[in-house]
Amino acid sequence: MSRLVWVPKDGLGLLGPPPGDLEFVAFPDDPASDPRLGDVQALVPPMGMGSSGPAGQLPMLWGRMPKLQLIQTLSAGVDWIVGGVPEGVVLCSARGGHDRPVAEWVLAAILAGLKDLGGFRDDQLAERWESRTVAPLEGARVLLLGYGSIARAVERRLEPFGPAIDRVARHPRDGVNGWDALPQLLRANDVVVVLLPLTSETTGCVDADFLARMKPGALLVNAARGRLVDTDALLAALSEGRVRAVLDVTDPEPLPAGHPLWRAPGVLITPHVAGLAPDWQATVYALVRDQLARWSGGEPLRNVVDAGY
Questions:
Q1: Residue 13 contacts by C-beta under 8 Å, 6 or more apart in sequence?
Q2: Is 253 part of the annotated catalytic residue set?
Q3: How far apart, in whole angstroms, are the C-alpha atoms of residue 109 and residue 270?
Q4: Rounded-to-integer distance, Cα 41 and Cα 5, Å
Q5: Residue 232, pLDDT above cutoff 90
Q6: What is d(CA 27, CA 152) in angstroms, rounded to the nearest whole number?
Q7: pLDDT band at 243 (very low <50, low <70, confident <90, very high)
Q8: Which has the closest alpha carbon to 64: 94, 96, 86?
Q9: Is 258 left (phi over 0), alpha (psi -120 to 50) or beta?
Q10: CA-CA 20 to 30 A from 78: which of 43, 219, 302, 306?
């Protein structure tokens, strides 16, 4: 007997024929009323998670899915789902599936921030011709905060530009500093790139104290989650000219019209697009297909979420 897997509609063609004993069925628009809800054994929730849409119904469905064994996300981050996964169900992320585009965005953000492209764009719109010096990346010091697969991809792309690179993660290892080294490293780095997973421990970790410890005029780049940063503290630091920032994520998100972060000095914002390469679906669904083939064949799964990420 086949094992039922719900997958996003746009993934049916990209996933190809189901491996082994699996049956792929499109994630229904109204999963709560689907007659096969209780037969689902694996689930690939659609992208665009949150409180609205089909994915927002997931917490209400768990009690009606007694056969569910595996949840495989399309996103590298699992903060939107990890807290509600039923006991005994394995949760896996798409870690590694978004490395290239996010790493490229980070490199672009660092260069844009150091060269003040946001400020020059403001000058252009104001029809103002004002020359000023801009900072080099060669010889600068860049701190990668969070050292997973995306950070490693960022580091590879930074190397030809010649910066010094520091690494900090919650779990220190060879070449990677632990959290206790962060205060000293913040004072020494020209750029701080936030790539941490969002967990109860990391929420709001970029707070007023963190920002006060940064080198005066340093650049903060956030390509992870908006809630890692205390927005009020960041606004204060930006207004005082103590730091600059390039953000792909914000808190709140989407950033509402009229929010002071839109017009804060020294900040450049993109609308959570770092991972949206034209081929992201093909890349991520290849990862998902491999994972489902492993599950079907009883092989060890990759990217199993442990300790919240």
A1: none
A2: yes
A3: 10
A4: 6
A5: yes
A6: 33
A7: very high
A8: 86
A9: left
A10: 219
Out of 3, 167, 170, 225, which one is annotated catalytic?
225
Structure tokens, 94: 């798409």
How far CA 131 is from CA of 120, 148, 219, 235, in Å, comes to: 9, 39, 20, 26
Span 246-262, average pLDDT: 98
Catalytic (active site) residue 201: no
For 31, the 3-state DSSP assignment is helix
Q: Which of 100, 104, 253, 259 is catalytic?
A: 253
Task: Tell me how far apart the alpha carbons of residues 90 and 302 are, in angstroms, rounded to a whole number.
Answer: 11
Strands (E), the chain: 3-7, 22-26, 40-43, 70-72, 90-92, 141-145, 164-168, 191-194, 218-222, 243-247, 267-269
Could you confirm whether 138 is annotated as catalytic? Answer: no
Predicted confidence (pLDDT) at residue 49 exceeds the cutoff of 60: no
Residue 44 Ramachandran class (φ > 0 left, ψ -120 to 50 alpha, else beta): beta
Give the confidence band of 45 by pLDDT, cuts at 50, 70, 90: very high
pLDDT of residue 48: 67
Kindly report whether the global pTM for this prediction surpasses the value 0.90. yes
The first and second tokens of residue 182, run together, are: 């962060």
Q: How many residues does the chain have?
A: 309
Q: Which of 100, 157, 213, 272 is catalytic?
A: 272
Distance CA 186, CA 5 (A): 46
